[in-house]
Structures are given as structure tokens and as C-alpha cells.
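Mods, move this if it's the wrong board.
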Amino acid sequence: MQYCPKCKVNIRGKKSCCPLCQGQVREIETDKEVPAPFPTLKKHRISGITFLKVITFIFIAMEIIFGTVNIQTDNIYPFVGVSMLGTFVAWLTAVTTLYLRNNLLKVITWEVVVAILVDIYIDLRTGFRGWSVEWMVPGTLLGLAIATIIIAKIMKLRLDEYILYLVLDLCMALSQIIFIKNGMNEFTWPAVITIMVYLILIAGLIIFRFEDLKNASQKMFNM
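Not the wrong board. C-alpha cells:
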């Protein structure tokens, strides 16, 4: 440790002269760490608001570019509309992840809902071949149930902390009946199997863990 008798400050490191007055310094011995005489500037990190502004600007810029191309080409390229939708979904996912970054289950559930809606929309816009309601929706919902349980186990969540997500997943699974009833889903096995699995899962939870479901409902609705 060095010391400047003129400025009366301690100087860390090895200096040939005082950084303040350029005068001579002398060595001192000390057992304690002496704080630096100059303030330490913290490195500025990008705030959440700044990040949100940046991705929003990029999203708007890309939508303007895609929209301009679409207008100039008289909508002859169908991939442009899909790209615009994909860009919107990416922006929405980023915003949702930023807003719900402390709740992984919410993020995944929200992204599954968005993915289902987008795939059904794309299926409808491309002539509707039924792939979205026959395969994508049932497969995604089964994957969501598995992912919810695995994440809950890894994060060591209590059942009452994630049981309502499974109930919400059941509601989404039951909504597939709409596609079956109106004839949009002609190959019903995947959708029916998904509904069956969720019904068995929820029935088991109600029978064996009803108190957890009750506690979760009370927390949500402040009953």
C-alpha cells in the first residue's frame, strides 16, 4: 500500500507518483484492506425496459419490411404473411418471458397456447388439411402435461403450486371436442387419447389429493 503525504490518501497498487498531485508517494504497511480513494463505477446492465424497447423496435421494423414487400408484390408470396405472424409470435414470446421470467410454468403454458392458435391459423390459411387439430394440438397438450410434471419435480414445487396448471391443461384438452363436433378433426384418436389421459390424471388428483386442489383454489380466488 502506498500513501501520499500531500493529498493524505492511500493508494492501492504500485504507482510511481500520486495520481492526484503527481507528487512522491511512500510505502506503508497495513494488514487491513483500505478502500480506494476513488469511487468504483458499476457496469451498467441493460434494464428490462430497455430490452423491451429494443425488441419492440426490431419487431415493428420487421413488420414494416414484410408489409411493404407484401404490398409491392400484391400478396403473391404466402410465406410473407406467415413470416409476419412468426415475428409477432417471437415478439410476444419474448415479452411474456420477460414479464413472467420468475414463473417457468406460466411461460411454457402461455407459449403452448400461442403455438396452438398460430398452428391452427396457419392450417386454415393454407387450405386446412387438418394436421393442426389432428396431430399438433393433441401432441402439444400431452407434451405440456409431461413438461409441467417434470418442471414441478425439478423445481420441487408442492402439488398445490401447480395443480391448477393441470386443470387448465384439461380445459384446453376438452376444447378439442369442438373440432370433433364440427367435423374439422376427422382422425380423432390422438385428441380422444389426450382427453382420456387428462381425465384420468385429474380424477386421480381429485380423489387422492383433493385438499391440494382446494388449497390452490383458495389461494387463487382468495377464498
